[in-house]
Q: What sequence folds into this?
């Protein structure tokens, strides 16, 4: 069976331009070679810290950002290489929910008007039919039809997430990219939003690409998780095995740093320093500069994902030794 | 008698006059911060955390009024103290403040060194002779790379984590006994947050500080705080040692909140209902309308604490018979 | 409604609004309001330079015409000039600003550089040059005003479009596959409307002032038009004796310009989508 979505060696360079009489501005390599498949019906988590390229990757999959290199296939059909506008037409089955759905609505337009617009753009039938679809979508996310008359600023954060979800559910997508769907929400509201996401997925047979930095949520929600660092995937594994036994030193550090509700386990690995700028990437393994296990060879050899177990891939040349309990090297200063 | 707690807030009630009437933002807030400990103040957005911080620092806006209660800092009631004395002796000197967004705390047009040294000129203790050297030593202690050069740089030249380290060093420079931290890691990445939390823990032990750590993140509290105080809609509903409260939450709100955390919950249920408006809050427990074990008396019962174990207190009718 | 309520609380905006309504009313119904409507063209050499009296509340001018009537009749001309100038400036400036703001690369650069060139033109000197070329007339003055005023609209619309283009809701619309036409005209333009309206309102007052200046310099309206600027210009030789001759047309300019400015400032404050409520 062909996977629902296949990404093959996707590179995305942002900005950068030639200038007259001045040095050129080099592009930022936001995504540097991501290969990934997404199976129908799964929830794939995309985690990493700010600037790791997870949002850029999501926007590239959606088609808002054009890939510099690489190909994207949807149900086996190539949908990459087109201009952003055409790309969106080819990828109608993919939809995106913004991190801040309130700001994703035109402040001068009522909710009903904004929701209807999505249907108009995609050419959905007559007015009465559109009304019906909108009411169904609002009901599906637990809002009553009177919400249509109101304006974005009259809703709370949790309600706006529901509206954002309703907006794309009407378009009947197969894949939904959720960009930080719970950031900025209170814990009690977050739980209801997550619950809604799971419920809708079950009802509509959706596939989620779940972009998040909240590891507690990812752990509970996702089937598989890809850990990104500076535009590359450093580890890709089923959620259960990743949280039980992460192999890449960065993934380990990320998991160790995430606050957990159950105290007791002390932090074993705390990485030092901060990631280098994506505009000036080092040679070799991008994490080598902060890695407690780095060897001189790590700074020259570029790392690619290699399978370590069925469905578990890691981009580290020393994973075997690290898994076997190798001590940190002195190289990390 | 043992030494008084570093900070003792008793039955604080603060109201703010707005366009739509008088809002009781805080109603019955009580907690104690003992010397050398870190107390986490936990609550969801709109629960009154920032009003509480402003009350402790004495920087409430003009529309706000403290209706009742005491805030005792090392035995002295801050509310009875004049603004002049607060400025000269307390704020910025004996109480240090770490804000949520370090970028807003630093003036973008002056160098970091100029700003921090200016603060020290006002508030540093007399025992510190060479301000510059002292500051550099502190910057080195908070693990800011290249501290000497850092003094001549501007705030935007630092990353978020580094700016937070700068602000922490600035707060420490005046040798405070109490640090008030307002969600200092919310804007940071997970690994940076981890580094800052470790640093704060070390600094509290090393400098003999006490810390009031305000946050919405229970995970951070679990990692960092010795004690915690849960606030709901302007009422402190439960206080106690972190481990005990997280293990055996006594108040229905604390239980519901913990059940929402992805680490705990089986099904994501959330808490049904909405936070009541502080404009027309019931005199009793404000959680009662959403509480599954509420009794008819709950909205009327005046708030007060009941002991629920060693150092563990809860404000709930369900525990009235058992603890007292 | 919340917007009206907020507006009603802003005293200076209400005053501005009242002045503007009054000026428009006078401009529309001038010929019926003026006590001596025929004084637009007719002169009465027997009653030259009379001071204000019950018969002639603003006095008469050097040709014996009733100044009150001429001030009232002048409102229409002043308003017509300013509406035409601001309208034409918007018609040129707004589409260019939208195009420059929404597109990227050479088109945007080209539009903005041309705008900068026009922005650098000194208004009065251009008007004088055009008057030399085409002969002094209201038309040449208006062309000069439009040529120097449209870049303001381009710049404002450009900045707003740039800001809105980067906003999340435009991003979301692109994600839904909306066409640029839809995004620009249904979303960006309405969201950019408030600074445009504010600028236009203030521009109306400003244009009245400049048109009066050009009239004063003899580069605009030509006698015997009842023009406020022209009246002040003609009154110079009779000052200070006939103080009323310059004072009342001058006050008309002052009050009208003030009215538009107050209204513009007031509009700026109420153009907030948060004031939109469902009920």
A:
């Amino acid at each position: 069976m062909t996977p629902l979505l296949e990404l093959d060696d996707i590179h995305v360079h942002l900005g950068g331009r030639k200038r007259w009489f001045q040095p050129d501005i080099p592009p930022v390599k936001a995504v540097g070679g991501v290969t990934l498949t997404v199976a129908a019906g799964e929830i794939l988590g995309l985690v990493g810290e700010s600037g790791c390229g997870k949002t850029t990757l999501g926007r590239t999959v959606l088609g808002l950002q054009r890939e510099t290199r690489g190909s994207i296939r949807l149900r086996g059909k190539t949908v990459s290489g087109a201009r952003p506008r055409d790309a969106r037409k080819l990828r109608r089955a993919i939809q995106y929910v913004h991190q801040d759905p309130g700001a994703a609505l035109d402040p001068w337009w009522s909710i009903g008007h904004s929701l209807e617009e999505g249907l108009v753009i995609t050419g959905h039938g007559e007015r009465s039919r559109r009304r019906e679809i909108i009411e169904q979508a609002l009901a599906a996310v637990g809002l009553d039809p009177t919400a249509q008359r109101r304006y974005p600023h009259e809703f709370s954060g949790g309600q706006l997430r529901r509206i954002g979800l309703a907006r794309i559910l009407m378009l009947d997508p197969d894949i939904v990219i959720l960009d930080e769907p719970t950031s900025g929400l209170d814990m009690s509201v977050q739980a209801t939003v997550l619950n809604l996401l799971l419920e809708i997925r079950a009802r509509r047979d959706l596939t989620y690409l779940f972009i998040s930095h909240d590891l507690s949520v990812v752990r509970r929600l996702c089937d598989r998780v890809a850990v990104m660092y500076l535009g590359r995937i450093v580890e890709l594994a089923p959620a259960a095995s990743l949280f039980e036994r992460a192999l890449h030193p960065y993934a380990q550090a990320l998991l160790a740093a995430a606050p957990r509700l159950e105290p007791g386990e002390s932090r074993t690995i705390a990485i030092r320093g901060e990631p280098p700028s994506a505009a000036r990437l080092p040679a070799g393994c991008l994490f080598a500069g902060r890695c407690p296990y780095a060897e001189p060879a790590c700074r020259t050899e570029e790392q690619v994902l290699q399978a370590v177990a069925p469905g578990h891939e890691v981009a580290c040349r020393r994973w075997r030794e690290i898994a076997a309990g190798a001590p940190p090297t002195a190289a990390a200063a | 008698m043992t030494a008084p707690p570093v900070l003792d807030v008793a039955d604080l009630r603060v109201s703010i006059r707005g366009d739509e009437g008088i809002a009781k933002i805080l109603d019955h807030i009580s907690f104690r911060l003992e010397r050398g400990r870190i107390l986490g103040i936990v609550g969801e957005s709109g629960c009154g955390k920032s009003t509480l911080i402003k009350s402790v620092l004495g920087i409430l806006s003009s529309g706000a009024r403290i209706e009742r209660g005491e805030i005792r800092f090392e035995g002295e009631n801050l509310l009875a103290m004049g603004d002049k004395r607060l400025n000269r002796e307390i704020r910025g000197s004996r109480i240090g403040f770490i804000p949520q967004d370090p970028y807003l705390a630093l003036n973008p047009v002056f160098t970091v060194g100029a700003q921090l040294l200016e603060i020290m000129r006002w508030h540093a203790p007399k025992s510190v002779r060479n301000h510059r050297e002292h500051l550099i030593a502190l910057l080195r202690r908070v693990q800011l790379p290249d501290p000497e050069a850092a003094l001549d740089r501007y705030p935007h030249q630092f990353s978020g984590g580094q700016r937070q380290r700068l602000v922490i060093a600035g707060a420490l420079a005046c040798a405070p006994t109490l640090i008030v931290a307002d969600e200092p890691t919310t804007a940071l990445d997970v690994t940076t947050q981890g580094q800052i939390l470790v640093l704060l823990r070390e600094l509290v032990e090393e400098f003999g500080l006490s810390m009031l750590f305000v946050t919405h993140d229970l995970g951070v509290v679990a990692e960092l705080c010795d004690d915690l105080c849960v606030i709901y809609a302007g009422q402190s509903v439960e206080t106690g040692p972190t481990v005990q409260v997280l293990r055996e939450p006594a108040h229905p709100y604390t239980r519901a909140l913990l059940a929402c955390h992805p680490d705990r919950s089986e099904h994501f249920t959330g808490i049904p209902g909405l936070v009541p408006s502080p404009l027309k809050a019931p005199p009793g427990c404000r959680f009662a309308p959403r509480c599954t074990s509420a009794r008819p008396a709950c909205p009327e019962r005046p708030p007060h604490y009941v002991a629920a174990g060693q150092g563990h207190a809860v404000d709930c009718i369900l525990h009235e018979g058992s603890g007292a | 409604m919340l917007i009206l309520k907020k507006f009603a609380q802003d005293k200076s905006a209400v005053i501005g609004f009242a002045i503007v309504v009054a000026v428009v009313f006078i401009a529309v119904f001038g010929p019926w309001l003026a006590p001596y409507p025929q004084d637009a063209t007719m002169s009465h050499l027997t009653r030259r330079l009379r001071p204000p009296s019950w018969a002639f509340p603003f006095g008469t001018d050097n040709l014996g015409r009733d100044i009150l009537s001429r001030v009232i009749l002048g409102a229409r001309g002043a308003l017509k000039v300013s509406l035409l100038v601001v309208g034409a400036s918007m018609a040129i400036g707004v589409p260019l600003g939208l195009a420059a703001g929404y597109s990227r690369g050479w088109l945007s650069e080209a539009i903005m550089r041309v705008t900068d060139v026009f922005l650098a033109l000194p208004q009065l000197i251009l008007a004088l040059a055009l008057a030399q070329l085409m002969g002094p007339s209201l038309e040449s003055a208006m062309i000069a005003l439009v040529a120097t005023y449209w870049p303001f609209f381009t710049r404002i619309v450009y900045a707003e479009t740039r800001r809105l283009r980067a906003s999340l809701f435009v991003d979301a619309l692109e994600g839904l596959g909306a066409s640029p036409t839809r995004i620009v005209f249904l979303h960006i333009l309405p969201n950019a409307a408030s600074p445009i309206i504010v600028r236009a309102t203030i521009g109306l007052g400003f244009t009245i002032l400049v048109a009066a200046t050009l009239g004063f310099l003899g580069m605009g309206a030509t006698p015997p038009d009842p023009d406020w600027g022209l009246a002040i210009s003609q009154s110079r030789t009779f000052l200070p004796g006939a103080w009323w001759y310059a004072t009342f047309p001058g006050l008309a300019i002052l009050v009208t310009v003030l009215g538009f400015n107050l209204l513009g400032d007031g509009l700026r404050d109420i153009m907030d989508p948060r004031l939109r409520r469902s009920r």
